[in-house]
């Protein structure tokens, strides 16, 4: 099953604030392997295939970098295959980049930060038939990555950037309160909880993916929202696939007391921690 195309709703794009657009563009092209789809002033759209926007960078006026707030923990780029993860590891081995790596049972992942400290995950999924479920809870762990096993799949070809089939796999957010966030994402956006890490984190998805959204309180319960010009998450796009689904979601949110704002870009909402979401068709 494809968890990132119709009829499954999914996070399709992420927009982040950066302090220096040129410096960030250099990083996202040379280190991550994005293509620049467009650039206008202090804004740029990045793509893996040259057509589909996955990441937007924007340099706000007077950017600030506050810590211990809600907002971005990391965005996660999903590679098509394990060989692509091997190619990425080989590529990064030639760069001076601090890197983390984990095996989550459902996936194999690398972790790094951009020049502003925005978190990035690069991962590949195991086949869903290999995932382990206990009733409605998916089994996830954080074990060391078998780097040798991954690298055994390497095809010894030069790195040519992100594969064209790379997509935005999921988004992990800092929030102020887990239960408030869970209510918003389940009752408001229509997701379901698929696993929890005690009272500290919850993982949510559509259609039994291991997670499209994760939320945590690792920046502290009650963490305040960042200012609009803060480095980090500006907003993300939750893609629904029919006008009716968008309308139903907006109605759900409003009936629960969550504010929805109509803008030229579309319908915006905020989770209880101030993380902005564009509800898009």
TrEMBL record:
Gene3D superfamilies in UniProt: 2,3-Dihydroxybiphenyl 1,2-Dioxygenase, domain 1
Provide the GO MF annotations for this entry: dioxygenase activity
Which superkingdom?
A: Bacteria
Q: Which residues form the VOC domain?
A: 10-125, 167-281
**Record keyword Oxidoreductase present:** yes
What keywords are annotated for this sequence in UniProt? Dioxygenase, Oxidoreductase
Tell me which InterPro entries the record gives: Glyas_Bleomycin-R_OHBP_Dase, Glyas_Fos-R_dOase_dom, VOC_core
Protein name, UniProt field: Catechol 2,3-dioxygenase
Source organism per entry reads: Lacicoccus alkaliphilus DSM 16010
């Amino acid at each position: 099953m494809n968890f990132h195309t119709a009829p499954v709703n999914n996070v399709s794009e992420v927009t982040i604030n950066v302090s220096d657009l040129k410096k960030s563009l250099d990083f996202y092209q040379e280190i991550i392997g994005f293509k620049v789809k467009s650039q206008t002033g202090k804004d740029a759209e990045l793509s893996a295939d040259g057509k589909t926007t996955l990441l937007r960078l924007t340099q706000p006026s007077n950017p600030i970098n506050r810590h211990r707030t809600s907002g971005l923990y990391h965005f996660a780029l999903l590679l098509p295959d394990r060989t692509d993860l091997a190619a990425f590891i080989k590529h990064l081995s030639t760069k001076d980049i601090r890197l983390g790596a984990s095996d989550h049972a459902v996936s194999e992942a690398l972790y790094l930060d951009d020049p502003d400290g925005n978190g990035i995950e690069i991962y590949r999924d195991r086949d869903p038939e290999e995932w382990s479920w206990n009733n409605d809870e998916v089994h996830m762990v954080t074990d060391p990555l078998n780097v040798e096993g991954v690298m055994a799949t390497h095809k010894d070809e030069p790195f040519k950037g992100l594969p064209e089939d790379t997509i935005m796999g999921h988004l992990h957010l800092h929030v102020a309160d887990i239960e408030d966030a869970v209510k918003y994402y389940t009752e408001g956006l229509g997701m379901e909880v698929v696993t929890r890490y005690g009272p500290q984190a919850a993982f949510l998805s559509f259609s039994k993916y291991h997670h499209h959204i994760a939320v945590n309180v690792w920046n502290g319960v009650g963490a305040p929202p960042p200012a609009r010009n803060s480095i980090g998450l500006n907003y993300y796009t939750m893609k629904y696939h029919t006008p009716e689904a968008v309308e139903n979601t907006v109605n759900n949110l409003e009936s629960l007391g969550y504010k929805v704002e109509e803008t030229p870009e579309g319908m915006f909402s905020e989770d209880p921690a101030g993380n902005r979401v564009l509800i898009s068709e």
